[in-house]
Amino acid sequence: MDGPLGLRKVGSYASVADAGDELDLSRLLEKPPPKLSIERQRSFEERSLSELSISVRALDAAAYDHGMFSPGMRSSGFDTPASSARNSFEPHPMVAEAWEALRRSLVYLRGQPVGTIAAYDHASEEILNYDQVFVRDFVPSALAFLMNGEPEIVKNFLLKTLHLQGWEKKVDRFKLGEGVMPASFKVLHDPIRKTDTLIADFGASAIGRVAPVDSGFWWIILLRAYTKSTGDLSLAETPECQKGMRLILALCLSEGFDTFPTLLCADGCSMIDRRMGIYGYPIEIQALFFMALRCALSMLKHDAEGKEFVERIVKRLHALSYHMRSYFWLDFQQLNDIYRWKTEEYSHTAVNKFNVIPDSIPDWVFDFMPTRGGYFIGNVSPARMDFRWFCLGNCVAILSSLATPEQAMAIMDLIEARWEEIVGEMPLKVAYPAIESHEWRIVTGCDPKNTRWSYHNGGSWPVLLWLLTAACIKTGRPQIARRAIELAESRLLKDGWPEYYDGKLGRYIGKQARKFQTWSIAGYLVAKMMLEDPSHLGMISLEEDKAMKPLIKRSTSWTC
Ligand code: GLC
Asked: What's the pLDDT at 451?
């Protein structure tokens, strides 16, 4: 399909339930960022983004009306005067290379593109499952195609994975929940019989038999991105998609023994799909859970079957945002409070509700915490706070508005203040800091792939660039994204689009990193396209839900 669909339709889609909930693009672009309690100097660059956006939108629209656009040829040139003139009118040479590499990774089923393989790395001896279409890996590819006005592949992917959800899923003799979405799938071509067959992995083949808890959430988030970008409500409204959503929701909204509204998970349940001490209530899953609930809320029909889910979602969102904003949030003040906490408090008057022993606070966090800034910590459960910084969870918290505007600003402040630790020479650390020595032995089970500052254990993943960029645009701080993108541009193509980098500064190509890793390629493209046209943000961002505000106010006065 020709033309900048994303640009023109983003603002036009309004579903049954999204009034007031969704990002009002015109407001984002035309209003200066909200005034926040945290004092911050707005640079010329930041101001110019929101101001220039209006004229760029007008220009884009005019160009579209005059038939000047074709796929892959979006207005490449939106940048501030401070940046080079080249950036203003010509795409970076890496962009064309990236598109070519992304198209090479396409996977076809009976002639139709249905996804992109994880890595197109012929030099690698071990293919493992990198020749599969991973649900989480496809997200940046999908966004790139949507932003480029090519929604068909995304639709095909959503329908194929929905079809896979309907399969009976078993690990040995154990039947998995009906709503489980696959971690990945593959198309087997039989050249003799001329047939294509799908195979899928729901965890039964995955190393460690890990459960892909994030897949279902990404699926819902992607369905909304597709709907928002194309303005095509008909897909989300089909009985099949409505049922698919309900099945995913049934898995995570079921009643049980829980005392918290967060979602209890086993280790390796998300992007970090190996044992890394993220079992319990990992921030990545909680943020994706929150975002998926909000996306589902905007797409679910209020019919006989949908209504009950809508009610359950609303209740859960209130409890979840309260819990996360109160107990996962850490800034200088909170850290100081925890440091002085008493333990062994009984009854509802307890301040230290989870009985965290202050001695368990790791030394590094006292140095890491800037005076201004904060973040959602990795995990909270009885007597346990995992203070590690996780990039994906914090970015998704900003995009979903799980973070209040003040918290979102504070996360960006922290990224700026701890640039060397979080970005270093290659964006972006998946987690900080690395686990070493005895702790590494205990926590990872002596995992040789996750040695300190490598892979999931403090490695740097270029794919995270798109999430950082989206968070930067949402918080009105695009200059941070520009800095990160420039770093990536100095190496990514030359290094062959590695999956991850190693080292404290992310200076070395990862020990076992695949080359031509598709989400490294797509992540770069999405970051570039969003910076050029910030209106794309709408497909992957949700504005703050005003209904949750009073609750938070109460919580703040109560906890302080
Ligand atoms: C690795 C990553 C996982 C990714 C997969 C395919 O297993 O840990 O997050 O989805 O590779 O790229």
From this structure: 98
Choice among 87-96, 400-409, 482-491, 548-557 with the minimum mean pLDDT: 548-557
Going from the Cα of 522 to the center of ligand 1, the distance in angstroms, rounded, reads 14
Give the E-state strand segments of 236-376 in sequence order: 329-331, 374-376
CATH topology of domain 102-539: Glycosyltransferase (1.50.10)
Position in ligand 1 atom list of the atom nearest CA 129: 6
Among 120, 129, 136, 284, which residue has the most ligand 1 atoms within 8 Å of its CB, making it the best to mutate?
Answer: 136
Closest by CA position to 506, among listed 492, 524, 525, 516: 492
Q: Measure the CA–CA gap between 442 and 431, rounded to whole angstroms.
A: 18
Residue 389 Cα to chain centre, angstroms: 15
Question: Ligand 1, atom 6: nearest CA belongs to which residue?
Answer: 118
Q: In whole angstroms, give the CA distance from residue 166 to residue 148.
A: 30
Q: End-to-end distance of the chain based on CA atoms, in angstroms?
A: 54
SS3 of 28, please? helix
Question: Distance, CA 230 to ligand 1 centroid (Å)?
Answer: 29
Region 129-136: mean pLDDT is 94
Q: What are phi and psi of 501, to 5 degrees?
A: -120, 155
Q: Is the pLDDT of residue 36 over 70?
A: no
Distance 191 CA to ligand 1 centre (A): 29
CA 187 to chain centre: 26
User: How many Cβ atoms are within 10 Å of 474's Cβ, its own excluded?
Assistant: 27
**Residue 427 alpha carbon to ligand 1 centre in Å:** 17
Residue having the nearest C-alpha atom to atom 7 of ligand 1: 273
Query: What is the CA(147)–ligand 1 centre distance, in A?
Result: 24
The pTM (predicted TM-score) of the whole model is 0.84
Rounded CA separation 137/184 (Å): 9
Is pLDDT above 90 for 408?
Answer: yes
Give the mean pLDDT of 41-46. Answer: 33
Pocket-forming residues, ligand 1, beta carbon under 6 Å: 118, 134, 136-137, 271, 273
Give the model's confidence band at 89: pLDDT under 50 very low, under 70 low, under 90 confident, else very high: low
- Measure 466 CA to ligand 1 centroid, in angstroms: 16
> For residue 62, is pLDDT > 60?
no
> Which ligand 1 atom is at minimum distance from the Cα of 273?
8
Residue boundaries of the structural domains of the chain: 102-539
